[in-house]
Amino acid sequence: MSIPELRERLLAKLKEDKERMVESEARSRDLKRAIENIDKKIRDTEDEILGNNKLSEENKKKYEAMYEVEKEMNDFITNFETNREKVREKMHTLQNSIVTTLENTSNLMTAMKTIPTVEEHEKIIND
């Protein structure tokens, strides 16, 4: 490669690297702002919770409701595999029950074809 080509390649590479650095710095600033906002919300919440019980009854109810929802979600996640297996077993049992019922129905329908009608029965009795 010639020197001008190498120079162009290096300049292009430098430009790409600079663009990536600018993007990374922007992402870093955004993340820092998000972390600061979350930290502020955490501090505010802790202050509300621990700050001499200054929580209003309405806020207490909101926090309790949020805690209950979080507890339910955690329970759901914790018990998900067990519950899923129970549901699968129940579905399998129901499917087997349906198959058995269909087989019995089919057998009964087949048997009904061999049962004589009222006229045929009377004819058999009279003969």
Features:
mainly alpha, single chain, 3 helices, 0% strand, 2 domains, 91% helix, 127 residues, elongated
Structure description:
This protein has three helices and no strands. It has helices at residues 3-50, 57-114, 118-126. The termini are far apart. The chain is mostly helical. It folds into two domains: 1-54; 57-127. The longest helix is centred in the last third of the chain and has 58 residues, at 57-114.
Number of strands: 0
Secondary-structure content class: mainly alpha
Q: Count of DSSP helices? A: 3
String of helices and strands:
HHH
* Rg from alpha-carbon coordinates: 38 Å
Write a short abstract of this structure:
By secondary structure, the chain is mostly helical. The protein has two domains: 1-54; 57-127. Helices cover 91% and strands 0% of the residues.
Outline the fold blueprint:
Blueprint: H1 3-50, H2 57-114, H3 118-126
